[in-house]
C-alpha cells in the first residue's frame, strides 16, 4: 500500500480527486505540512502532494526545509507530462508542489504515475 499525503490550499480537493480515481494500492490522507514531513521522514508515508497559489511557495516550504530539496519538486504553474513525472519519480522525488488552479490537470497524472509503482 502506498500512502499519499495532501497539504496546502487544495488538500481536500486533491484527496477527493485521487480517491475518485479508484487507484488500487493507494491510500490518500489529508495532512498538515508539518505532520507530512514527520510521517515521510519516519517512513509512515510515501508521497506528498501540496498545492498553493503559485505551486512553489507554501505548498512545499516546510517540506523542503525539513526533508531537503533532493526529494522535493515544484511544478509551479506548469502541467507536467507523464514522462516528466516518471523521470522525477525515478530520481527519487517524493514531495510535489503545484498551483491550486492546476489541480484538475496535475493530480490525476501524478497519482496514476505513483500508483503504477505500487502494482
Structure description:
This is DUF2620 domain-containing protein. InterPro entries: DUF2620. The protein has a single domain, classed as Ribose 5-phosphate Isomerase B, Chain: A (3-Layer(aba) Sandwich), CATH 3.40.1400. The chain is built from five helices and five strands, in the order E-H-E-H-E-H-E-H-E-H. The chain has a five-stranded parallel beta sheet, sandwiched between helices. Helix 1 links the parallel strand 1 and strand 2. Helix 2 packs parallel to helix 3.
Features:
about 25% strand; DUF2620; DUF2620 domain-containing protein; Ribose 5-phosphate Isomerase B, Chain: A
CATH topology: Ribose 5-phosphate Isomerase B, Chain: A
Strand order of the largest sheet: 2-1-3-5-4
Total number of domains: 1
Low-pLDDT segments, ≥5 res: none
CATH superfamily: Sugar-phosphate isomerase, RpiB/LacA/LacB
Using the alpha-carbon principal axes, give the shape: globular
InterPro entries: DUF2620
Protein name: DUF2620 domain-containing protein
Pfam family, one: DUF2620
Amino acid at each position: 500500500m502506498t500512502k499519499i499525503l495532501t497539504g496546502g490550499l487544495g488538500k481536500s480537493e486533491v484527496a477527493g480527486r485521487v480517491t475518485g480515481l479508484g487507484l488500487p494500492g493507494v491510500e490518500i490522507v489529508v495532512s498538515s505540512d508539518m505532520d507530512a514531513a514527520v510521517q515521510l521522514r519516519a517512513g509512515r508515508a510515501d508521497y506528498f502532494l501540496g498545492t498553493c497559489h503559485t505551486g512553489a511557495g507554501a505548498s512545499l516550504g516546510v517540506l523542503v526545509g525539513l526533508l531537503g530539496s533532493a526529494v522535493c519538486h515544484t511544478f509551479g504553474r506548469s502541467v507536467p507530462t507523464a514522462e516528466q513525472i516518471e523521470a522525477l519519480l525515478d530520481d527519487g522525488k517524493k514531495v510535489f508542489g503545484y498551483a491550486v488552479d492546476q489541480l484538475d490537470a496535475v493530480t490525476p497524472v501524478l497519482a496514476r504515475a505513483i500508483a503504477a509503482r505500487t502494482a
